[in-house]
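Class prep. Protein, please:
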Amino acid sequence: MSRKHQPPEWPARAISLDEMTELEVMGYTNEAQFQAWVLREAAARGWDKRLVYHPVVSRLSQSGWPDLVLIRPPRMLFWELKGPTGTPTESQERWISAMQACGQEARFVWPKDWRYVIEALEREGTT
């Protein structure tokens, strides 16, 4: 596996909302940087990286399938990550909408949603 496709390093400690600044997250200029941040925050909050799914080569996945599926029973998060100016595609909207209709925690997440990300990762049980 090339270095390009290896997952980012996972930190040992969660950053609190008080420590986080909007500039830290809003400074990410692309989806890959934002995704690396989300994965670091998930790991720091106890989400098992073995229960995180991200298609390594998205063009080989079903069109519109979310970027991340994070599982920590009893919760499962389906997140389609977007860069600061990213726009959902029709197929992405269809998947997220169908998952929500099935009662799943599915949504689009932009860097500006960083507070939601931290709160969602810290939440226990069901919503």
